């Protein structure tokens, strides 16, 4: 009715207008709506009509909720534009991967169809210019997650005030101030109360200042930590870029241990197993292949390697959406904080109990005296002051009972410890962590990359029973002169095909080696022997790959040779590969049976290399005939040993001094590694970890011990060759 009255001319706007006017003007209003908004139908309305209707309804309370079931015109027009240009929208890409929608993927033409719509090549990657990358980021977003805001200084002040001891002290300070001022006046009566308040404020501000400064430093540290490089193919070149620079359409290379940097689709790869426990909680790895090509951000490559087409980045990924729903949890209290709070509570209760008893006894004595004097109903100002004095005595008992200096002493000592650790370039996020770290009695350290620099080079090699140093170009040339051409060809074929690394040409036209430090060291040896990576790859066809993992301690490939037949190459831990060999390549380049003399020579070479703190790898091959398919398993026996290489990983500077400092402080340092036991012993001695009284032990030997033997053995263990040993060690402790 109100709407209708707006169309009624003012002369007719009576309190009770005649019904005929309503009929006339309702008809007029209906014709007006039909003329202007007649195109708005329940279904299949034109975009122009919808936009006119939206413009009229632009000022609406809660528009997102009220129009949640209506068409999103901006996204509809964007989708139409995408269809015309044969492109695909960010939401559509996200729904394919997140929903594992095979049917929708096939509708878009599979992985190749998605790549085509993203204007990329599965072999050469994106064609990049600054404008094109910027345009992609505008359409699909950037590969960054929304970070939580930096907490202000006053938030840390508020958190510091939540300490139980400080709350009790604050209550005591308030009571002391009130009673003191009433009894002795200002300012004399406020001295005790203000002293407690000053102590509380000092504790709070020291704690808050330290925590706030550390939070800012950790924010910067987190930024540095997240600057992860990933290998991609762009403009036909394989190169390293920051994960922040990834855009949909990039071709990413993943190998074992890598974290998937964005949502994407599997292009090609071998034996790919993905650990999705961070998203789903399932510990069973997921096999990803051409039939099930979906890769999710935040998951990890447990086994295998692959090429991935990036489809969704940043907050549109499933990992980004999960992060958006999570809220930061509170920190647990440290053991010292728990004990201090417990002590403060107990002391407070005991003090309060005796304060109440004292007040009750004194008050009872006053009441008894007045009762005997028949003055129980007659109270003077002196009696009120006497009662107030009794109350002051009770409060004094509570105040004295709670040690206000204890929190201050603990906070200052921990702040001093934090400052010292910062000088040693060790950042501590919370003051209380210094207390926890101060309780450590054992440090279990990895070897590669922690005690060593993780920059590896091949310094010795035993090829065709010729042991030579290869740590310079002259010595490599010397090795080449001793190795027959047939053996050299097989060696280069093994190095360049049985690898997870790659030799690429960068934008400057120079060769660049990509891969793990171990792979890089072997590829450098192959190049120094005059090998051509691309030429070797083109001579054969890669049929099957079994990537390296820490359980098998080996890697294998099967190649289809140009002259016909198949050949398997294998490399890995020297003892394991050598045990699978029946033959070896002799000094003349011929294949000879691995008799006892040759076996002892190779074993002594392995021990000699390990004794010099070198990591040893054995390379072997075998012919497997003409009947082999990618579905068949690679048999692990009957191999021919090509040679053994010794890889040097230098000890990190300052490690020996740090180990000595820990030992002087009563902290035992133990080394954990999966390397050869002799190599581990040599490096442990070089670091100062393994002493004459210490023990280096392997997993099988450890597991054979009974509990009584373990109790005697564990304190002496300084080098452990299995991760499981640490778990058992901690359980027995």
TrEMBL record:
Species whose genome carries this gene: Ensete ventricosum (Abyssinian banana)
Q: Name one GO biological process term.
A: copper ion transport
All residue ranges annotated as the Cation-transporting P-type ATPase N-terminal domain in the record: 107-181
SUPFAM superfamilies for the chain: Calcium ATPase, transduction domain A, Calcium ATPase, transmembrane domain M, HAD-like, Metal cation-transporting ATPase, ATP-binding domain N
InterPro entries per the UniProt record, alphabetical: ATPase_P-typ_cation-transptr_N, ATPase_P-typ_cyto_dom_N, ATPase_P-typ_P_site, ATPase_P-typ_TM_dom_sf, ATPase_P-typ_transduc_dom_A_sf, ATPase_P-type_domA, Ca_ATPase_N_dom, HAD-like_sf
Asked whether the UniProt record includes Nuclease among its keywords, one would answer: no
Keywords from UniProt, A to Z, are:
ATP-binding, Calcium, Calcium transport, Calmodulin-binding, Copper, Copper transport, Ion transport, Magnesium, Membrane, Metal-binding, Nucleotide-binding, Translocase, Transmembrane, Transmembrane helix, Transport
Reactions catalysed: Ca(2+)(in) + ATP + H2O = Ca(2+)(out) + ADP + phosphate + H(+)
- Taxon lineage: Eukaryota, Viridiplantae, Streptophyta, Embryophyta, Tracheophyta
A GO molecular function term, named singly, is:
calmodulin binding
Q: How does it sit in the membrane?
A: Multi-pass membrane protein
Query: In terms of one coarse class, where is the protein primarily found?
Result: membrane
- What family does the entry list? Belongs to the cation transport ATPase (P-type) (TC 3.A.3) family. Type IIB subfamily.
Indicate what this protein is called per its UniProt record.
Cation-transporting P-type ATPase N-terminal domain-containing protein
């Amino acid at each position: 009715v109100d709407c209708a009255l707006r169309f009624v001319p003012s002369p007719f706007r009576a309190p009770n207008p005649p019904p005929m006017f309503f009929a006339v003007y309702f008809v007029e209003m209906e014709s007006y709506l039909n003329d202007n908004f007649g195109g708005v139908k329940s279904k299949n309305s034109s975009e122009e009509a919808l936009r006119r209707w939206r413009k009229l309804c632009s000022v609406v309370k809660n528009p997102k909720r009220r129009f949640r079931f209506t068409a999103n015109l901006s996204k509809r027009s964007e989708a139409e534009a995408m269809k015309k240009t044969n492109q695909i929208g960010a939401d559509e890409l996200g729904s394919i991967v997140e929903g594992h929608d095979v049917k929708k993927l096939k509708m878009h033409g599979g992985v190749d169809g998605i790549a085509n719509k993203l204007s990329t090549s599965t072999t050469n990657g994106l064609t990049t210019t600054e404008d094109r990358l910027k345009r992609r980021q505008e359409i699909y977003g950037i590969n960054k997650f929304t970070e939580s805001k930096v907490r202000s200084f006053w938030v840390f002040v508020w958190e510091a005030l939540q300490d139980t001891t400080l709350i009790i002290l604050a209550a005591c300070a308030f009571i002391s101030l009130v009673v003191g001022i009433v009894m002795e006046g200002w300012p004399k009566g406020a001295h005790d109360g203000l002293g407690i308040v000053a102590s509380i404020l000092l504790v709070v501000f020291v704690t808050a200042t330290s925590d706030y400064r550390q939070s800012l430093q950790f924010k910067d540290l987190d930024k540095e930590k997240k600057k992860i490089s990933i290998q991609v193919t762009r403009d036909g070149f394989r190169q390293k870029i920051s994960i922040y620079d990834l855009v949909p359409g990039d071709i990413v290379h993943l190998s074992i241990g890598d974290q998937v940097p964005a949502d994407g689709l599997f292009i090609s790869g071998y034996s790919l197993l993905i650990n999705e426990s961070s998203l789903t909680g399932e510990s069973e790895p997921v096999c990803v292949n051409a039939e099930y090509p979906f890769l999710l951000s935040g998951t990890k490559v447990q086994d295998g390697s692959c090429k991935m087409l990036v489809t969704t980045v940043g907050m549109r990924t499933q990992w980004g959406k999960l992060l958006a729903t999570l809220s930061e949890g509170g920190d647990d209290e440290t053991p010292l904080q728990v004990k201090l709070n417990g002590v403060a509570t107990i002391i407070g209760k005991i003090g309060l109990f005796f304060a109440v008893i004292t007040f009750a006894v004194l008050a009872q004595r006053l009441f008894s005296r007045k009762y005997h004097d028949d003055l129980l109903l007659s109270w003077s100002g002196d009696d009120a002051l006497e009662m107030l004095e009794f109350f002051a005595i009770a409060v004094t008992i509570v105040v004295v009972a709670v040690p206000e200096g204890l929190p201050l002493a603990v906070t200052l000592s921990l702040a001093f410890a934090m400052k010292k650790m910062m000088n040693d370039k060790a950042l501590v996020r919370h003051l209380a962590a210094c207390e926890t770290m101060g309780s450590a009695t054992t440090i279990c350290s990895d070897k590669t990359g922690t005690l060593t620099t993780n920059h590896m080079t091949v310094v010795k090699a035993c090829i065709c029973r010729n042991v030579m140093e290869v740590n310079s170009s002259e010595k490599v040339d010397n090795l080449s002169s001793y190795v027959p051409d047939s053996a050299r060809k097989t060696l280069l074929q093994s190095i360049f095909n049985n690898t997870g690394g790659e030799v690429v040409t960068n934008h400057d036209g120079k060769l660049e080696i990509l891969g793990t430090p171990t792979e890089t060291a072997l590829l450098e040896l192959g190049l120094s022997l005059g090998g051509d990576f691309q030429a070797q790859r083109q001579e054969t066809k890669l049929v099957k790959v079994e990537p390296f993992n820490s359980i098998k301690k080996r890697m294998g490939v099967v190649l289809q040779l140009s002259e016909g037949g198949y050949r398997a190459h294998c490399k890995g831990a020297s003892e394991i590969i050598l045990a699978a060999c029946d033959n070896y390549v002799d000094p003349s380049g011929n294949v000879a049976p691995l008799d006892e003399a040759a076996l002892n020579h190779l074993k002594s070479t392995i021990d000699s290399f390990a004794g010099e703190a070198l990591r040893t790898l054995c390379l072997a091959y075998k012919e497997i005939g003409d009947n082999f398919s990618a579905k068949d398993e690679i048999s692990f026996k009957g191999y021919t040993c090509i040679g053994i290489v010794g890889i040097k990983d230098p000890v990190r500077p300052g490690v020996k001094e740090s180990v000595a400092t820990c030992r002087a402080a009563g902290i035992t340092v133990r080394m954990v590694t999966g390397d050869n036991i002799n190599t581990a012993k040599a490096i442990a001695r070089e670091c100062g970890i393994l002493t004459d009284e210490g023990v280096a032990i392997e997993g099988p030997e450890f597991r054979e011990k009974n509990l009584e033997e373990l109790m005697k053995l564990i304190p002496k263990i300084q080098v452990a060759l299995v991760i499981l040993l640490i778990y058992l060690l901690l359980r027995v402790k």
